[in-house]
Hints:
By secondary structure, the chain is of the alpha/beta class. Helices cover 42% and strands 14% of the residues.
Amino acid sequence: MSVEPPVSSPRDLDEAYAILADGQAKPIAGGTDLMVAWNAGGLAGRTFLDLSPLREWSRVRATKHALTVGALATHTALVGHPLVRRRLPLLAEACATASGVQIQNRGTLGGDI
């Protein structure tokens, strides 16, 4: 039976930066690839910082000439976002075909890049 690695979840950006500053935690968001290594027993001695609670990095923002998509935006969020569907339909379509629903719900655009 594998033991889960230690994971911190910051409440805000300042806390995330403070945790990262000591250099001990590896940042993660969706963690879909991480689960493969965890199940294989390859994460012993590692500590992680779960960035997924940071809503600042998952937002979609629009201006007249641009659409900014946060790196923590999930595939599911992008598929359902009206601005993404209208202004970036190929991105919405690609996100809809990314793996299964569980991965789409957890996987992030930044993780795929």
